[in-house]
Amino acid sequence: MIRIGHTRASGTLVFGTTRHDGTDAVIGSASGGWRYSRLIGDEGAWYLPHSRYGRPRLPDIERLAAALRAAGHTVEVTITSSSNATAAIEADRAVRAAGRAARYTELADARISSATARLAAVDARREAVPPGQPVINDRYAGFLNRLNRAEDAARAQLATGHYWQRRAEATSSTQRYRHNPRVTVGRVERLEAEQRRLQRRRDGLDPTGERSGAYFADLAEMDVALADLTDEIGYWRGELAALETAGVFRSWTRDDFRPGDEARVLNVWYPVVRVNTKTLTVELPNRDGGHESNNEVTRRRTDTAPYVNVYGRRRDGRELLSPPPAEGATCTCRITIPTFNAEFIPERDGGPCPKPPVSRLTIRHDGASCGCDGTCMLPEPDEPDVSPEQEWTEVVLFCTDHAFEFQADIAAAVATEAATVEDLS
Buried (b) or exposed (e) across 200-212, using 16+ Cβ within 10 A? Predict the structure, then answer.
């Protein structure tokens, strides 16, 4: 029996057959570009390229199953879902991306170091030649040709090293971009739209799922697709909730704006005309660069901007680059109870401060511009050999008392140009 199975973690695989048992002609000619790999399972298996981490491509699966049945084989198609598939997929994706980045970095370092040494050797041999030395014989001409060829080969090797260096940077930046909170917000919106679309199609099927034109063969396959979408949405929403709890990111919503405010869309400020559920209606500048109409006949030019593209708000002379804290937020500092002599009797911790915040300090830690001398990038400052983590953002909320107490520290942080202070009062 030939088994065609699909899971989000492993993709679409074909078991129960080998590469040269007569089924290779059927599978190789099927649509979808099926390929064989000896590294899958114990004896190898056929797989559908680019099917890992995604939903099953049912047309390709059904066409392959029909072709195998027409050739006289017994075929079983199994599509399964897992409640925690997204978490495992993202962890595996991160590990694979880190492995690729490390491999590309290793290739780049080897080639760049070798090319640099070869170029240094070429330069040293060139320095031994007197300036203006003519080509006096064929032997000297051959020497110059060999020197030029060595330089060309070294520069070609250096270009190859720079290529692998760019590949490593692209791999790391792609993984960072995938977990960018603004990208995650857009991904959740797209997944929810897809979930609603599939739910409408499922509700339109009869109990047997035989309605003509239906993409899914039966209700069970539709339920698997909906379960996968639900799991994926839940994972990304949990990541956004963790960022919001930590105070790192919270998406702008309609509750944060009102007509008359100014919104920073990407890098330009626009007056807000209307506040919608998913977008802001902003006024575009006239041809002369202003926002006011020159006469009553001229109509205002407006456009909509999704909240994921909003980077700031101006209201009553105050400017916020990120949404205000959630209702009920308190100061993130802790209360320190002083003693008569702190040298002999240590100060006591009075717990978290319950007062409302009046200012917010945001520090973008990258190990260099933040002034932490790289210690902020280490999971454990006492272990300097640990590889640095990605850049991260620290958000501190101050009440009136703590803002006055730590005003010197706030000024020092702002002086590094990696921190911003916003008035929340």
Answer: ebbeeeeeeeeee
317 closest CA partner among 262, 359, 259? 262
pLDDT in tens, 244-278: 877 778 889 999 999 999 999 988 999 999 999 99
Instruction: Decide: pTM greater than 0.85.
Output: no
Per-residue model confidence as pLDDT tens digits over 14-43: 988 888 888 888 888 888 889 988 888 777
148-157: Cβ within 8 A, 24+ apart = 150/118, 150/121, 150/122, 151/119, 151/122, 153/118, 154/115, 154/118, 154/119, 154/122, 155/115, 155/119, 157/111, 157/114, 157/115, 157/118
Classify residue 73 as exposed, middle or buried by CB count within 10 Å of its CB (0-12, 13-18, 19+): middle
Parse the chain into domains and list their residue ranges. 2-80, 86-178, 181-245, 254-320, 334-423
Tell me how far apart the alpha carbons of residues 365 and 393 are, in angstroms, rounded to a whole number.
Answer: 6
* C-alpha span between 268 and 282 (Å, rounded): 11
C-alpha span between 50 and 374 (Å, rounded): 39
